[in-house]
Each structure stands twice: as structure tokens, then as C-alpha cells.
Design a protein that fits this description.
With 232 residues, the protein is of the alpha/beta class. It has a single domain, classed as 3-Layer(aba) Sandwich (Rossmann fold). 36% of the residues lie in helices and 16% in strands. It contains 9 helices and 9 strands. The strands form 3 sheets. It has a 5-stranded parallel beta sheet, sandwiched between helices. The chain has a two-stranded antiparallel ribbon with strand order 3-4. Helix 2 packs antiparallel against helix 3. The longest helix has 16 residues.
Length: 232
Amino acid sequence: MICSIHQPQTFPWIGYFAKIFQSDIFVILDNVQFKKNEWQNRNRLKTPAGWQWLTVPVIHRFGQLISEVKVNNTVNWRKKHIQTLKTFYGKAPFFKIYFPEIEELYQKQWESLADFNLAGIKWILDKLAIQTPVKIASDLKELQKHSEVSPDERLILITKIMKADSYLSGAGGINYLKTDLFPNNSLNLIFQKFEHPVYRQLHGKFVSYLSILDLLLNEGPYSLNIIKGGIR
């Protein structure tokens, strides 16, 4: 049984969903420190001038957990996101199919960044027909008993709580994980192998590593097959 674990990101890139697809269970790691200017409150969309950020403004303090970070609703970010999607994806082949549901997602007055990200991730999983169960790390009572653990030990503990025998890491994990800890704890450590596929896009030359929204709005129900094509 394979477990994968990742922070909740804002409409993540397609490799994020490839990892979920390859897993028997996926855990949203919302009880670790929020990192500003990474992927936890923003992602990239394609425009005629190249890519640009789609950013959720947040109110936070240094050291806060992702689960504690609040959305900054003093600015009308939801309206800006909706207009951005209309402007740059209004002519995408599957825009009219998915946009009403995206707009409905934005109509809620979100207070928690993690809640917004989780809602977006679950919506994408539904559209991709990926049925991997999703758990939330902060809901795991057994994990709460072990707050003073290292990042690697946290991953091992969560994997064991999920009763999995293998942990699937992103490819970059090979640069920072203490790989010997996993077999020492009777767990297989697997590194994701994913080659970014090329698919239809608007606005000229293909750009990789964008939000999953770019794939979904351009390829619709074919999106999962495209994601699967990148798995090695």
C-alpha cells in the first residue's frame, strides 16, 4: 500500500495529481510551517505574454502552520481570479464546461487558505476521476501525540498511521530525505518518476509546470490520460 503526503497547494501542477493517482492514500500535510512565496498560496497560469501568478493573498506571521493561515479578504482576490481565468482561458476548449463550477467554488467567503486549497484539490480530483482517499494530517490524533518529530520522522509516522508499507516521495525528495530512515522503519521509499507531457495550450509555445487548471481547461476529460502518460 502506497502513501503520499504533500502540503496543500493552490491548484497544483499536474505532477501533484500524478502522485495522488499513483497512491493508495494521500495525506494533506497542513500542520507544518507555511512558506511564503512558494506554492501554498499561488500557482501559474498561461497568458499571451508568458506565465503569470494566480495568488491568494494571505495574512500570516512567521512560524504559522499552514492550517492557521488566513485569507486576506480585505482585497477582492476572488473577483480578480475569476476575471483572470475569463481573460486568458475564455477561449479554451473546455472553459464553458468547467468554469461555472470554478466560479461556484470562488463564491464562498473563504477564511482559511488550507480550506480553499483543499476544496480546489478535491474538485480537481473529482473532475479527473481520481478516487484516491484524501486524509488531513491535522485530523490524525495519533500524529498529534508526536509534535516534536523531525520532518522525515513525521512522514514515516503518517505513513504508518495510514497502515501503508511504502512512501511515495516527489522526485526532489532524494535531495533532502534521510533515505536510510525509511527501510530502518520497515517502509519502502519510492521516488516519483514523472516526465512532463505536452498537451494543447492557448497563447503560443508550450509552457510546462503550470497549474492543473491549464491542463483541465484545455484538455477536459482527456486530462487524466495525459497525466498518466507522464508517469514513468
